[in-house]
Write a structure and sequence with these properties.
- The protein is α+β, with helices and mostly antiparallel strands.
- The protein has a single domain, classed as Aminopeptidase.
- The protein is 22% helix and 36% strand.
- The protein has an 8-stranded mixed beta sheet with strand order 6-7-5-4-3-2-1-8, with helices on both faces.
- The longest helix is centred in the first third of the chain and has 18 residues.
- The two termini are 32 Å apart.
- The model has no long low-confidence stretch (mean pLDDT 91).
């Protein structure tokens, strides 16, 4: 008897939205720890800082129909001073990085929702290996520097490419890129 190989199931779509429940916030922090502490060794034990006290977490959820199945990505945003917003701690679960749309959609909602809340300038400190993704999304490099022992780019979003999103609790849908 021949058996067909089992093909791993992948969700057809992902919801990217503001974290609105405690489990989403908890899983977002767990994903950040997995990426920034365990995988990249940027922090010892936990990556939380004072910004988490007032930052808005954004999450990417894999969807099974209308129900979320798993948190697969996150980023946080905060207003540092009137009009000046920052995005930080962008993380996508390693099993979902090849989806292609998750990081970009997290970035789009981060900037578009801040834009709707009065953002006039949006910045992020980006690891050098992620600079191309941000450039493709209409960001420019302001400076290069080192932080946490790794080269980074301070980048600024071109707000003209990010229309304000006034419904960030519902957010955006990210669809996986088609395989070539």
């Amino acid at each position: 008897m021949m058996f067909e190989p089992i093909i791993p199931f992948r969700t057809a779509e992902y919801q990217v939205k503001f974290a609105t429940s405690e489990w989403e916030r908890r899983e977002a922090h767990a994903l950040r720890r997995a990426v920034f502490c365990k995988e990249q060794n940027l922090f010892d034990g936990d990556d939380r800082d004072a910004i988490d006290d007032h930052a808005i977490p954004i999450v990417a959820l894999s969807m099974l129909g209308v129900a979320s199945d798993q948190l697969v990505g996150t980023v946080r945003i905060h207003e540092a001073e009137p009009g000046l917003w920052w995005g930080s701690r962008l993380a996508v679960h390693e099993d979902f990085r090849k989806i292609g749309a998750l990081g970009a959609t997290l970035i789009k909602l981060a900037v578009s929702s801040a834009h709707a809340m009065g953002c006039t300038r949006f910045l992020a400190n980006v690891q050098v290996q992620n600079g191309l993704l941000f450039r493709r999304l209409h960001w420019e490099v302001i400076e290069e520097f080192e932080i946490y022992g790794k080269p980074h780019l301070r980048m600024q979003a071109d707000l003209a490419h990010y229309p304000p999103c006034v419904t960030p609790e519902a957010g955006f849908v990210a669809l996986p890129k088609k395989a070539a």
